[in-house]
């Protein structure tokens, strides 16, 4: 059954606050056993926080816009999205606070968001410029656009999510998540505007999406704030095109819990600060991950973003003296073509926390693409970690226990300043075969 928000008093004129009318429509749809809540084409619905209900599909028709209010008093505070560390993405100390959410659901099985229309997070209402390279806000975290907590059998498809002031789509503690054919179009200067952040969720499929954002495009998390839920596991990411000022595909940095059984394949990463990143700083471990058939093109954006243009970066470093990091093991990279300002970087602490890395047909071309210095590796965040100046290698392995490289290659272009070094280097490794 369909329920049109206009029939419940929504105006859709882009100025009237339609929160009450849309929420009443959602509630009535739920009370009637479920169905579709329709936002009609050609209209802009201005709204504060909305609470989604079980078996209700929010259907935003092509040509319709659901725009988030710029007034924080109109937002629901589910106490979600607390970060594991007291610094934001660009390294500024912050005070942890309850988050806000624009679209929120908890224990709401069978929900869906669909329709071909646009959800606009109104990001610039919450931020101010602090450098030529990014904007940020006094409130941290700023409103999450879509936060779905402990919801099973959920679908987000065929919509455009744009202008997120903080994380865009955050399913936490969810099981059976399908995210398909969506666009995320965030400005490249709005810090912390992650694309998709599955957190303590399982059986997740992210398929055929295009994501542009100023932070990680797809970031698997296992955060301290949601530790009542299980591991992040059984995840498939495929057929996506990704642009990011941080990492296009990341596992971590928030890794209090474990990550298991992850497949990433047939994706194109372009104009990103990092390509693929596994960053473990907490006690959670990463096991059984495969990356295959991926084209990676990286360049450094600015020194405020983590990363120095690495196409692949895998590391496990302790967050601090009280927080030992977990294990990264059984990771496969197969048929990866890289054109980048930095090489592949794989490193663990002295305890050999990075183990059993296999690379097949990983080809790296190094060249200068930006004005930023080369010959650097970014070890942030972590205890005593910063940016280390040293010649860039095509493949740099440190404190790795077991690595096999088969049919890999390095090509170095324009090395007049001598910042590019060896094709391959190992330091304090064991069991490495080429």
Over all CA atoms, what is the radius of gyration?
Answer: 22 Å
Q: Helix coverage percent of residues?
A: under 10%
* SSE class: mainly beta
Please count the helical segments: 1
Low-pLDDT parts are: 81-98
Return the average pLDDT rounded to an integer: 92
Distance between the termini: 61 Å
The total count of strands amounts to 38
Taken from the alpha-carbon principal axes, the silhouette is: elongated
Largest sheet data: 23 strands, parallel
- Beta-strand percentage range: over 45%
Give a nutshell description of this structure.
The protein has one helix and 38 strands. With 434 residues, it is mostly beta strands.
If you had to describe this structure to a student in words, what would you say it looks like?
This protein is an all-beta fold and 434 residues long. The radius of gyration is 22 Å and the shape is elongated. The protein has 1 helix and 38 strands. Strand 32 and strand 33 (387-389) form a beta hairpin. Mean pLDDT is 92; it is low at 81-98. It has a 23-stranded parallel beta sheet that branches. Strands 21-24-26-28-30-34-37 form a 7-stranded parallel beta sheet, with no helix packed on it.
């Amino acid at each position: 059954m369909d329920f049109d928000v206009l029939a419940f008093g929504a105006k859709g004129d882009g100025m009237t606050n339609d929160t009450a009318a849309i929420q009443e429509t959602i509630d009535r749809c739920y009370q009637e056993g479920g169905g579709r809540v329709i936002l009609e084409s050609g209209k802009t619905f201005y709204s504060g926080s909305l609470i989604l209900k079980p078996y209700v599909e929010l259907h935003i028709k092509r040509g319709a816009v659901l725009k988030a209010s710029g007034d924080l008093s109109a937002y629901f505070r589910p106490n979600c999205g607390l970060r594991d560390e007291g610094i934001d993405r660009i390294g500024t100390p912050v005070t942890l606070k309850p988050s806000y959410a624009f679209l929120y659901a908890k224990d709401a099985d069978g929900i869906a968001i669909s329709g071909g229309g646009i959800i606009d997070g109104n990001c610039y209402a919450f931020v101010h410029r602090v450098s030529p390279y990014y904007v940020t806000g006094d409130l941290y975290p700023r409103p999450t656009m879509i936060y779905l907590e402990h919801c099973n059998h959920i679908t987000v498809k065929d919509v455009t999510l744009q202008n997120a002031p903080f994380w865009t789509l955050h399913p936490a503690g969810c099981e059976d998540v399908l995210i398909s054919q969506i666009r995320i179009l965030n400005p490249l200067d709005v810090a912390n505007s992650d694309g998709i952040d599955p957190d303590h969720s399982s059986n997740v499929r992210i398929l055929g999406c295009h994501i542009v954002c100023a932070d990680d495009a797809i970031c698997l998390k296992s955060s301290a704030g949601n530790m009542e839920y299980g591991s992040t596991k059984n995840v498939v990411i495929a057929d996506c095109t990704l642009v990011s000022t941080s990492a296009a595909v990341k596992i971590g940095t928030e890794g209090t819990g474990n990550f298991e059984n992850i497949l990433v394949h047939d994706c194109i990463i372009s104009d990103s600060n990092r390509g693929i990143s596994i960053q473990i700083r907490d006690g959670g471990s990463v096991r059984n991950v495969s990356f295959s058939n991926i084209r990676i093109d990286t360049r450094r954006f600015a020194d405020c973003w983590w990363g120095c243009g690495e196409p692949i970066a895998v590391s496990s470093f302790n967050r601090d003296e009280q927080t030992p990091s977990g294990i990264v093991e059984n990771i496969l990279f197969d048929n990866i073509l890289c054109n980048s300002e930095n090489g592949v970087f794989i490193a663990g602490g002295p305890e050999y926390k990075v183990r059993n890395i296999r690379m097949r047909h990983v080809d790296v071309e190094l060249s200068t693409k930006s004005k930023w210095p080369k010959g650097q590796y970014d070890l942030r965040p972590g205890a005593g970690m910063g940016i280390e100046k040293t010649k860039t290698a095509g493949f740099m392995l440190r404190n790795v226990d077991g690595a096999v490289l088969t049919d890999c290659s390095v090509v170095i272009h324009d090395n007049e300043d001598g910042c590019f070094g060896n094709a391959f280097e190992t330091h304090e490794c064991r069991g490495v075969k080429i």
